[in-house]
Specification:
This protein has four helices and five strands, in the order E-E-H-H-E-H-E-H-E. The protein is α/β, with parallel strands linked by helices.
């Protein structure tokens, strides 16, 4: 597992990765880290006055991005329907485990 914590963030994530497996969807990509930092930095601009959201993450892999946004929105008491998808069944399993590890409820993994 790897721990992801952004220096200016209150959100800390414990993410299980599968580097020993083959395929691009079973590791955590730097893009997920960049996305998380961007969303936190621009939170007010992105989510101001939004009370009900639907978010779709395509190619979720280990689920870092979806897990991060779910925790961020929950910390601000914003309701969101969040869907995480991936072509790889093993990646979906890992994403599901990561949601559980990080105590995130209500995210649909398909």
């Amino acid at each position: 597992t790897e721990e992801y914590y952004y220096p200016d963030s209150k959100i800390k994530l414990d993410i299980l990765t599968r580097y020993s497996a083959t395929g691009v969807s079973r590791s955590t990509w730097e893009g997920a880290l960049v996305m998380g930092k961007f969303i936190e930095k621009n939170y007010e601009q992105l989510f101001r006055n939004r009370l009900d959201l639907t978010i779709l993450e395509l190619g979720s892999g280990t689920g870092l991005g979806g897990t991060h946004i779910a925790k961020l929105l929950a910390s601000h008491k914003i309701k969101a329907d969040i869907y995480m998808t991936d072509i790889c069944v093993k990646a979906l399993s890992t994403a599901n485990k990561n949601l559980i590890r990080n105590q995130v409820d209500g995210v649909k993994v398909e």
